[in-house]
Recover the amino acids of this structure.
C-alpha cells in the first residue's frame, strides 16, 4: 500500500479543509469526484480516501480514461483474449471490495459514458462492491450543459466533490513545498541546503503548469545539479521539463510503449485537456503554431477520433 504524506498536499486552509472532509467521507460508500489541474495530487487524494476507509486492505486500481476507447473499456470491464479464450478481469471486478479511480473521467467515449453509468448504478446486481473515485481537470457541469458529457454519469459521480486549488493560488504552500523537496533531495555533508531570496522569488513567480509534479521535478534536478550550499536563481531549471511532465504526470504512464504517431496524438490530447481546450495555450505548451495544431486536430477528426470530433 502506498504511503501518502498529507503534508505534501499543503497547509493552505482550503487544502486542509479538503483533507479533513475527505477523511470523513472515506468511511462512507460515497462515490467521489476530485477536480483539479494536472499535478495537484488528485490520484494521491484518491489514495488517501482509500487508505482511510474500511477498504484499505483491498485493491485500489487506476484506469486512465484518456487512452484509446477499446483499451479503456477493456481496463474497466475486462476482456477475453481471442487466441487463448482466457478472460482478464477488468478493474471493477479485480478491485471488488476496494476502490477504482477513473482518472480523467471526461475522456470517456460518449456512448461508453452511458453504458458505464448503467453498470455503475447496478453494481449490486453484479455482486460487486467497489467505490468509484473519478478525477478530472475540467468543469464537468459545463460539459454536461454543452452536451459533451452524459448527465446521468455526472450526477452519479458528483454527489461528493472535492476541488484541489493550483499551487499558484497558494504561495505559502509553494514556499513550504519547495523547502520540503530541497530537504528531500539534498545530499551534501550537512544534509541541508538553503535557497536564496531571488531563487524563491523566481519560484513564487513561475506559473507551474503541472503544479506539484512539476515543482518536484524541477527541485530534484536543480538540487542534484548544484554544488553550492545555497540554491540560487541560476540553479533553477524551470521550464525545461514541461514536455516530460506532460506525459509523465501522476495520472499517466506507458508513453514509451507507443509509436511516435500515437505519442504525438496523446500529447496533443493532453495539452488540450489541460488547457480546457484552449487551442492557443495548447499550441504554446506543445511548441507549435496554432495552424499546425489546427491541422493535426482536423487530421484526427477525419480519422474518426471521438475526442477530436467533439472538440469545440
Amino acid at each position: 500500500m502506498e504511503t501518502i504524506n498529507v503534508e505534501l498536499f499543503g497547509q493552505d486552509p482550503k487544502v486542509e479543509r479538503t483533507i479533513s472532509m475527505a477523511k470523513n467521507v472515506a468511511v462512507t460508500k460515497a462515490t467521489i469526484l476530485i477536480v483539479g489541474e494536472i499535478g495537484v495530487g488528485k490520484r494521491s487524494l484518491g489514495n488517501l480516501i482509500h487508505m482511510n476507509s474500511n477498504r484499505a486492505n483491498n485493491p485500489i486500481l487506476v484506469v486512465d480514461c484518456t487512452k484509446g476507447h477499446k483499451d479503456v473499456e477493456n481496463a474497466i470491464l475486462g476482456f477475453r483474449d481471442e487466441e487463448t479464450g482466457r478472460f482478464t478481469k477488468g478493474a471493477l471486478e479485480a478491485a471488488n471490495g476496494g476502490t477504482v479511480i477513473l482518472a480523467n473521467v471526461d475522456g470517456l467515449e460518449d456512448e461508453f459514458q452511458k453504458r458505464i453509468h448503467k453498470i455503475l448504478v447496478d453494481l449490486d446486481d453484479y455482486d460487486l462492491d467497489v467505490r468509484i473515485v473519478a478525477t478530472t481537470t475540467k468543469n464537468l457541469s459545463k460539459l454536461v450543459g454543452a452536451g459533451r458529457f452524459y448527465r446521468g454519469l455526472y450526477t452519479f459521480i458528483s454527489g461528493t466533490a472535492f476541488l484541489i486549488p493550483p499551487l499558484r493560488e497558494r504561495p505559502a504552500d509553494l514556499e513550504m513545498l519547495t523547502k520540503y523537496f530541497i530537504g528531500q533531495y539534498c545530499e551534501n555533508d550537512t544534509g541541508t541546503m538553503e535557497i536564496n531570496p531571488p531563487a524563491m522569488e523566481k519560484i513564487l513567480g513561475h506559473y507551474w503548469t503541472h503544479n506539484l509534479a512539476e515543482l518536484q521535478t524541477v527541485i530534484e534536478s536543480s538540487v542534484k545539479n548544484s554544488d553550492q550550499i545555497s540554491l540560487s536563481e541560476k540553479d533553477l531549471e524551470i521550464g525545461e521539463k514541461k514536455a516530460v511532465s506532460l506525459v509523465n504526470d501522476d495520472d499517466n504512464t506507458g508513453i514509451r510503449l507507443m509509436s511516435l504517431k500515437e505519442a504525438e496524438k496523446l500529447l496533443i490530447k493532453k495539452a488540450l485537456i489541460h488547457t480546457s481546450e484552449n487551442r492557443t495555450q495548447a499550441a504554446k505548451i506543445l511548441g507549435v503554431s496554432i495552424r499546425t495544431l489546427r491541422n493535426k486536430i482536423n487530421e484526427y477528426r477525419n480519422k474518426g477520433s471521438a475526442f477530436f470530433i467533439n472538440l469545440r
User: Anything to note?
Assistant: Residues 181 and 216 are 6 Å apart (CA to CA).
